[in-house]
Design goal:
The structure holds 2 protein chains of 2 kinds. By secondary structure, chain A is of the alpha/beta class. Chain A has 2 domains: 26-465, Amino acid/polyamine transporter I (Up-down Bundle); 483-619, 3-Layer(aba) Sandwich (Rossmann fold). Chain A has helices at 7-12, 28-35, 37-41, 46-54, 65-89, 95-104, 106-138, 146-163, 165-196, 214-228, 237-240, 249-277, 288-297, 305-339, 357-373, 378-381, 387-407, 412-470, 495-507, 523-533, 549-563, 590-598, 615-619; strands at residues 483-488, 510-517, 539-543, 568-577, 604-612. Chain A has a 5-stranded parallel sheet with strand order 3-2-1-4-5, with helices on both faces. The longest helix of chain A has 59 residues, at 412-470. Chain A is elongated, with a radius of gyration of 32 Å. Chain B has one domain (4-91). Chain B has 3 helices and 3 strands; from the N terminus they run αβββαα. Chain B has helices spanning 4-21, 56-61, 64-91, and strands at residues 25-32, 38-45, 48-55. The radius of gyration of chain B is 14 Å and the shape is globular. Classes of the chains: A alpha/beta, B alpha+beta. Chains A and B meet through strand 3 and helix 21 of A and strand 1, strand 2, strand 3 and helix 3 of B.
């Protein structure tokens, strides 16, 4: 017989043994694709976000894209170096949550965790939406299908991540490195065309606003800076996933972090400079990167234009893969929180492929909901973004300051100074972002962070209460004086019923069967039939003028429970299990309804005695006629 | 389990007493537990099953008037509970 390949196995592959977890560790090159795609991909939209703001101040302000870009690059250096310290101090990973919790207290840790969880979700939503925007820029006919394409991209990411860490890294390596190569080619060709060939810059068609501008100009510059800070999102991902690296984990993850910072900084500065060089402006239907690409490479398929399309596809790919950073980070953070019982413990279960499957699936669903809510529009999602990242930056850097102060190992002074600088700078940026973006949508995050923290505490409180109630500390062994079993049965006995009655007799001497006579048969007739098959268990024949079987049975069970208060009461349900799932639709499901109704009754034990039907038996008409 | 003859005897004794108490209350079954000390009268009034327990020795030692008084008291208590349950069901 040919083995059946289930859809799950086909999509996700065979299960891995727990012992194989160490074989799933990542090399530096592979880790760069898993953890850096979010960070690197932000170059696809960070410059555009700055220009969108500067455009409001007229053509004169557009040249500020370069100094703003440079100041963000400087900020990047500080943050990257600070996170290098974090990896050194916390080689077991955990990132901002662990650092803040251990050094600043649980409240600070949970603030960082909720901010990070929000940002992981937003990273998926923003990156996927921006990736699809890259494709709709090159192929405008696809523009109306943005939400559908986003949903497809998320589904692919979920499946790739459920297959496992190493396989997702293998699948994502080509697009990530292609994007980096294309971006550098774009910058070099653009610079060559700009300086050597003297390509004329496009004239920005922006009207200068009338009136006094000094205050407005300063505000726009600050706002442009705040919007451009999205470039820094994803820096923290490596510090959260240190344990996914091959040994030596600290050195490998630090090197990967510094390489990532260098690539990001150079690409971001290069693209920002070319946007200025070519006088590019954001358009609703085409991204800034796409416009620079058209000017640098042209659009003829057979010439350098092929590079333009390759850039667009690789941009789409890396933006979609940027979401992959969150698929690596979110489930890990959720598993750490689950370990501390702040989120449901299902998040710490490793799936068949040694990944935190529940975290991956949950992230996919929430991000998809967000994208569908905002119709896949990147600019509506961006204002929510970055505030959570900078909040976690600030908390983790502040925590590290406390850490170095406490441990005072060799060279602690330098490290403390670096992290203090990181804390001050990121706190300042956090305030700027909060101030500038508050009315644009950052207020949602400001409300969401405490709301999620509240849920963390409620979850932990629940687990604490459960632990206390299940504790053996004050356990008095229950004394079971007697045990009464009630077996609800159909008016006509059958194999299922008799099996259940025999089982009931094996667990108690006090067994009584009960039925509801909805067919208006004479009760004595029902009783006589019962006695033919069961002569040692009494049958109570209840009537129900309104044919409500379940309610009448429940009322009877209540009466028995009241009568035998000292006893343990078991309701034993005879059930047959059809050969096919859809056969269930052909039966009354009385047992199921009783089970559901009795589930929340304290003190009543509900037991099923299943009887499995076979297809062949059903075909021969030997199966029970009863719909019980 | 109680024997058929004994069951018939008990039902024949109790049914007219119940009729006198409340004609709507029907006696459905008489049960004896495994210790053979506790009797239970399973009755029904309309949609509501009622179960009243009684010590076997009490049952055999009571005269009919005493038994009727006990049953009346038991039924009144159960109907009180039924009223509470009915109110709860209506609320739900």
């Amino acid at each position: 017989m040919r083995p059946r390949l289930s859809l799950k196995r086909f999509l996700l592959g065979s299960p891995l043994r727990t012992a194989e977890i160490h074989e799933q560790r990542l090399s530096k090159k592979a880790a760069l694709t898993v953890f850096a795609s979010d960070n690197l991909s932000s170059t696809a939209y960070a410059t555009e976000e700055i220009l969108l703001v500067l455009k409001l101040g007229g053509a004169g302000l557009l040249s500020f894209v370069v100094p703003i870009g440079a100041s963000i690059a400087l900020l990047l250096i500080i943050v990257v170096l600070s996170y290098g310290q974090l990896i050194r101090a916390y080689p077991t990973g955990g990132g901002a949550y662990t650092v803040a919790k251990e050094n600043l207290g649980v409240g600070a840790g949970l603030t960082a965790a909720s901010a990070l969880l929000i940002d992981y979700i937003l990273t998926v939503a923003v990156s996927v939406a921006a990736g699809i925007a890259a494709i709709t820029s090159a192929f405008p006919r696809l523009f109306p299908y943005r939400p559908h394409l986003c949903a497809l991209a998320i589904a692919i990411l979920v499946v790739a991540n459920l297959r496992g860490v190493r396989e997702s890294a293998r699948a994502f390596a080509l697009p990530v490195y292609t994007f980096v190569a294309c971006a550098y080619a774009l910058i070099l060709v653009g610079l060559f065309r700009g300086f050597v060939q003297g390509l004329p810059p496009a004239t920005p068609d922006v009207a200068a606003p009338a009136g006094p501008l000094e205050y407005a100009t300063a505000f726009l510059l600050v706002r442009g800076f705040a919007h451009g800070c999205v470039a820094l999102t994803g820096v923290e991902a490596i510090s959260n996933g240190v344990q996914a690296f091959q040994k030596p984990v600290v050195r490998n993850s630090q090197i990967t972090l510094y390489v990532m910072g260098a690539i990001l900084g150079s690409m971001f500065l290069g693209i920002s400079y070319e946007a200025y060089l070519f006088g590019v402006l954001p358009k609703p239907e085409e991204t800034v990167l796409s416009q620079i690409g058209r000017m640098a490479f042209g659009t003829n398929w057979l010439g350098t234009g092929a590079l333009y399309y390759l850039t667009q596809f690789s941009t789409m790919a890396i933006l979609v893969l940027a979401a992959n950073t969150s698929f690596a980070g979110f489930p890990r953070l959720a598993s750490i929180l689950a370990e501390d019982r702040f989120v449901p413990r299902q998040f710490k279960n490793l799936g068949d492929r040694l990944v935190f499957s529940n975290g991956i699936i949950a992230l996919g669903f929430v991000a998809l909901a967000l994208i569908l809510f905002f119709g896949g529009n990147v600019h509506l999602l961006i204002p929510l973004y970055a505030i959570g990242v900078f909040l976690s930056f600030t908390l983790s850097q502040s925590g590290l300051v406390m850490h170095w102060w406490r441990v005072r190992e060799q060279g602690w002074g330098k490290r403390l100074a670096l992290n203090a600088l990181g804390a001050v700078v990121t706190a300042a940026v956090l305030l700027i972002i909060g101030w500038v973006k508050f009315r644009e949508g950052a207020w949602v995050v400001v409300l969401a962070v405490p709301a999620i923290m509240f849920l963390f505490w409620k979850t932990r409180r629940h687990y604490f209460q459960v632990t206390m109630q299940l504790s053996l500390a004050d356990f008095d062994r229950p004394r079971l004086a007697r045990h009464t079993v009630v077996v609800p049965v159909p008016p006509t006995p059958n194999k299922v019923v008799l099996t259940a009655v025999e089982y009931a007799k094996s667990i108690s001497k006090d067994v009584l069967a009960v039925t509801v006579n909805v067919d208006n048969k004479h009760p004595e007739e029902v009783r006589e039939l019962w006695k033919k098959f069961v002569d040692d268990v009494p049958l109570i024949v209840l009537s129900s003028p309104y044919r409500s079987v379940v309610q009448t049975l429940l009322r009877f069970i209540d009466e028995v429970e009241d009568l035998r208060r000292e006893d343990k009461l078991t309701v034993l349900l005879p059930e047959f299990v059809p050969a096919r799932w859809w056969h269930n639709l052909l039966h009354n499901q009385t047992s199921l309804m009783l089970k559901g109704a009795l589930l929340f009754r304290a003190g009543i034990v509900v037991t099923s005695v299943p009887h499995h039907l076979h297809e062949a038996a059903q075909e021969k008409g030997r199966a029970s006629r009863n719909d019980w | 389990m109680i024997g058929d003859d004994r069951r018939r005897q008990i039902m024949a004794r109790v049914t007219p007493l119940l009729q006198a108490i409340d004609p709507e209350v029907l006696l459905l079954e008489v049960l004896l537990d495994s210790t053979r000390q506790q009797l239970a009268f399973v009755m029904q009034k309309g949609e509501w099953p009622l179960v009243i327990g009684m010590n076997w020795l009490d049952y055999v030692s009571h005269r009919d008037e005493e038994l009727q008084a006990r049953l009346q008291e038991g039924i009144a208590k159960r109907l009180e509970v039924v009223q509470q349950r009915q109110a709860r069901e209506e609320e739900e």
